[in-house]
Design goal:
3-stranded antiparallel beta sheet, mainly alpha, two-stranded parallel sheet
């Protein structure tokens, strides 16, 4: 998101407010269970983040699957409204797929606790796999005598900040605004299938008092 002038920035904000992102809300427990596969999460991350089209062959290359196996997963995701078939490009020898919206959200009002837990477990397991792979890569670099850059991001960082409710809302907004800013900054070239990617997992959990706590 280039900020050349105050006027341009204001116009961008106004446009964002006038045209809010199209959200795909997960409301069906069966649809959540359909995500219980690492390859499907990779596909959703790729299509929703890039906001461009991919073929089954391109997506398969990211998941160590055959194109036919990936086509099966794409049809399953299409069934539940996560992805859609896109217009053909080039010689149109292979179907292209796109995200069904701009953002994907889990509806927390779903009655099925098991379905929500399954979705969270799949997401956490996928992150754990990426984290373990990064640990192994850094260990291999250390054994080879490769020194990390001073500004290398941490593998994982956690903690707490002391914030009243008003500052919590500001903290949430500013953190997410930073993510959205860099998402919007990516050019079409930077969103191609061979681009460098950085995965993130953000969880902001305010502390709540249990009934009876804090009472004198």
């Amino acid at each position: 998101m280039t900020r050349n002038t105050v006027e341009e920035d204001s116009a961008q904000r106004a446009n964002a407010e006038e045209h809010p992102p199209q959200v795909v809300s997960i409301t069906d427990p069966q649809a959540i269970r359909a995500l219980a596969h690492d390859a499907r999460l990779i596909v959703l991350d790729e299509l929703f983040a890039s906001q461009t089209t991919r073929t089954a062959t391109e997506l398969a290359s990211m998941c160590s699957l055959t194109p036919s196996a990936m086509s099966y997963h794409l049809r399953a995701l299409e069934k539940y409204g996560y992805v859609a078939r896109a217009a053909s490009e080039g010689d149109a020898r292979e179907r292209r797929w796109r995200a069904a919206g701009e953002r994907l959200e889990l509806n927390t009002q779903i009655d099925s606790i098991n379905a929500k837990t399954a979705y969270l477990n799949v997401q956490l397991n996928a992150f754990r796999t990426r984290l373990n792979a990064e640990v192994e890569r850094r260990e291999a670099e250390a054994k080879s005598g490769i020194k990390p850059a001073a500004d290398r991001p941490p593998l994982l960082t956690s903690g707490l900040v002391f914030l009243p409710e008003v500052k919590q809302k500001e903290f949430n907004r500013r953190l997410l605004d930073l993510v959205y800013e860099y998402e919007a900054m990516a050019t079409a070239e930077e969103r191609n299938i061979d681009s460098k990617r950085m995965f993130y997992l953000i969880s902001l959990l305010p502390e709540y008092q249990h009934p009876g706590e804090g009472a004198s």
